[in-house]
Design brief:
By secondary structure, this protein is mainly α. It is built from 14 helices and no strands. 46% of the residues are buried.
C-alpha cells in the first residue's frame, strides 16, 4: 500500500494534522478547566464545538468535496486551520480565551470538507482490492493517536502552556499542507457553479443513498450502532467507581487498554484484509461488541473488565473498517463525499441521543441495564446486515451456475 504515492502522502499528512488536533484539543480542555475551575458548562461547550459541525456541515462538506478538486481542497483546509489557530492565539493574548472554542469549531468544520476529499482520492487512485487494507491502516492510526494523543497533548500543555501548544498545532497544520503539495495536481474538471446546481447535487446524493440497497442498510446499522455507542460512552466512569470500586484514575488504564487493543486489531485486519468480506468484518465487530459490552455491565472484577476492554478494542476496528470499505466499494466516485456526508450524521446523531438517555436509563434501572441495552442494540445492528449475506450468497450461486 505504501508503494502508492497517494496513500503514502496522505498518511504522512494526516499524521501531522491528527497530532496537531490532539495537542490542541487537550491543551484547550486543560486550559479551560484550569481557568474556569472545572465549570461543566464550558467543558461541555468544548464537546459541542467538536461535534456540532458534523451535524451542520457533513452533508454540505461532502457535497462540495464532490464538486471541488480534492487535492486543492485538502491543502486549503489545512492552511485555513493553521490561520484560524494563529488568529485565535492573537485573540487569546489579547485576553479573549473564549475564542478557543471558535478555533475548535472552525477546525471541525474544515474537517468536514477535507476528510471526504481524502476518501475521493483513495477511490480514484487505490485499487479496489487494497481499499479495505487502507481503511484498516487508517483505523490503526486513529487508535495509535487515541493512545499517545492525550499523553503528548497533556505533556506539551503542562510543560510549556497554552501559547506553545497552539503554536505547535499551527505549525503541524502548515506541515500537513506542505506535504499534500507533493501530490500530483488534480485533473482539470469542468466548472459547475450556482446555488441551484449545489442544491440539486445535494438532493441527488440523498436519493443515491436511498436507492442503493447496501448504503440504505448501512444507514440502519449506523442508527442502532450509534445509539449503542452513545449509551455506554458516559457510563465507563461509573463502571470504574461503582462496579469495580476503583478510584477515578483507574479509568485511564481501561481507556489505554482499549486504545492499544484497537491499534493491534487494526493491524491484524490490515494483514488479512483481502481474505474477508467487509460485511462479514462489520458483523463480527458488532457481535463481539454486543457480547463484550453486556459482560462489562455485569463484571465486578477489575481484571475481567480489563480483559473485556481489550477484547472489544480488538474487534472494534472491524466496525469502522467494514463500514468504510462498504461505502467505498458501493459508491461511485462522483458521490463519495455526499454518501459519507449523509451517513456520518446518522451515527453521530444517534450517539448523542444515546448519551442523553444513558443517565435516565441508569437512574430508572441500573448500570447493568445500560450495558445490556447497548449489547442488544449492537446485536440488532448485526441482524440488520443479514440481507447482505443473502444477497452475496445468491450472487455466488449465480456465478457458480454460469461457470
Amino acid at each position: 500500500m505504501f508503494k502508492n504515492r497517494y496513500v503514502r502522502t496522505i498518511v504522512l499528512s494526516r499524521v501531522l494534522s491528527n497530532l496537531g488536533i490532539w495537542i490542541r484539543n487537550f491543551a484547550i480542555l486543560l486550559y479551560v478547566t484550569d481557568l474556569t475551575h472545572n465549570d461543566p458548562l464550558y467543558v461541555s461547550l468544548i464537546s459541542v464545538a467538536e461535534y456540532a459541525p458534523i451535524f451542520l456541515f457533513a452533508i454540505i462538506g461532502g457535497t462540495f468535496a464532490d464538486r471541488w478538486q480534492p487535492r486543492r481542497t485538502m491543502i486549503h483546509c489545512d492552511l485555513l486551520s493553521a490561520v484560524s489557530i494563529f488568529l485565535v492565539l492573537i485573540a487569546l493574548l489579547l485576553g479573549s480565551w473564549q475564542a478557543l472554542l471558535l478555533s475548535t469549531f472552525l477546525s471541525a468544520v474544515l474537517s468536514q470538507f477535507s476528510q471526504p476529499s481524502a476518501m475521493k482520492l483513495y477511490k480514484r487512485h487505490v485499487p479496489a482490492e487494497q481499499i479495505q487494507g487502507v481503511m484498516a491502516m487508517f483505523q490503526s492510526f486513529m487508535a495509535f493517536f487515541m493512545v499517545i494523543g492525550p499523553v503528548v497533548g497533556t505533556y506539551i500543555y503542562q510543560q510549556f502552556g497554552i501559547t506553545v501548544s497552539l503554536s505547535v498545532t499551527g505549525v503541524l497544520f502548515i506541515g500537513s499542507s506542505l506535504i499534500l503539495v507533493l501530490l500530483p495536481r488534480d485533473q482539470p474538471k469542468a466548472a459547475q457553479a450556482g446555488p441551484q446546481n449545489f442544491r440539486q447535487e445535494l438532493k441527488d446524493g440523498l436519493r443515491y443513498v436511498w436507492s442503493n440497497r447496501v448504503l440504505k442498510t448501512l444507514g440502519g446499522t449506523f442508527s442502532v450502532a450509534g445509539l449503542a455507542a452513545g449509551l455506554i460512552q458516559p457510563m465507563v466512569i461509573f463502571v470504574t467507581v461503582e462496579q469495580l470500586g476503583q478510584d477515578k484514575s483507574f479509568l485511564q488504564w481501561l481507556m489505554m487498554a482499549n486504545g492499544a487493543a484497537m491499534l493491534v486489531g487494526g493491524g491484524v485486519i490490515m494483514s488479512i484484509a483481502k481474505k474477508i468480506q467487509p460485511h462479514a468484518l462489520l458483523t463480527m465487530g458488532l457481535f463481539v461488541s454486543a457480547v463484550g459490552n453486556a459482560a462489562i455491565g455485569c463484571s465486578n472484577s477489575s481484571l475481567l473488565t480489563l480483559f473485556l476492554q481489550v477484547l472489544t478494542g480488538l474487534f472494534y476496528p472491524c466496525i469502522h473498517i467494514g463500514i468504510s470499505t462498504m461505502i467505498m466499494r458501493n459508491t461511485e466516485t462522483a458521490f463519495v463525499g455526499r454518501v459519507g456526508g449523509a451517513l456520518t450524521p446518522i451515527f453521530m446523531g444517534m450517539m448523542v441521543v444515546g448519551m442523553s438517555l444513558a443517565g435516565f436509563v441508569k437512574g430508572w434501572f441500573s448500570l447493568t441495564a445500560v450495558f445490556a441495552a447497548s449489547g442488544c442494540l449492537f446485536l440488532a445492528g448485526a441482524l440488520v446486515l443479514l440481507p447482505l449475506f443473502q444477497k452475496n450468497r445468491k450472487a455466488a450461486v449465480m456465478n457458480g451456475n454460469k461457470a
